[in-house]
Design a protein that fits this description.
292 residues; two-stranded antiparallel sheet; 13 helices
Amino acid sequence: MLFALEVTITGLLVGLMYSMVALGFVLIYKASGVFNFAQGPMTLFAAFALVSFLAFLPLGFSLVGVLVIMVALAYVVERVMLRPLVARPPLVLFMATIGLGFFLEGLTQAIWGTQPRGLDLGIPDTPFDLAGVFISRMDLFGAGIAGVLLFGLVWFFQKTRTGRALRAVSDDHEAALSVGIPLRRAWTITWAIAGVVALAAGILWGARLGVQFSLTLIALKALPVLIIGGFDSVPGAIIGGLIVGASENLAEVFLGPPVGGGIKDFFPYLLALAFLWARPYGLFGREIIERV
């Protein structure tokens, strides 16, 4: 039982970091109604930029520098990519994010190359003994940072005037414009927040796995999280991440040995397929009914 508890807790901690990655998708989807295929490359770009800053600046100044870059990126994306595509079909915006993703991957390779980099945050990756349950300090730190960021974003969207304006934009673009909410400014703020989320994800996953191009694949783990929790729900991203993190760990430990292992890589997608069959809009997603 202690081992099962340890596996579950470790999965929940990793699940919070999955939630943080999924949150970047949710923010863009809520603001523009499009799936942001560039979220993974944004995470990769932020992680490589941080490593390059750390070569000659302390961690605090490096974070500020990368944060400025990600906010500037959000402004450029709104001006160059989103503004000309206003009122275009969602498929057009989706294809634009695919192009943005390939552009960021190519830009990252051109600036920093393809050699993996290490990212040391000064946290020893040794187990922490809690009443016989061993928990990784790195996972605990990452889950703590992810939890604070998720809580802060939930508070921002629920309690602040800007957050409520962004929620109004996500509900109805035309109605938001009619009451004086600037759509373009809302998109810029949303992409800037998604850039901050990408930076946080790049730091935590880069410290855990190393800063390398495979970080873009972490974004694929956000797909089951979004399907389970709902594409337009911030609480759904949190709950979905916890479910995916815990279930993949438990499946790997208790179901993996009889079939030779490797279940952890695909079990979340099987779980997502089950949710698509039983609850296609996710646990917290809004059911949309259109008259045709």
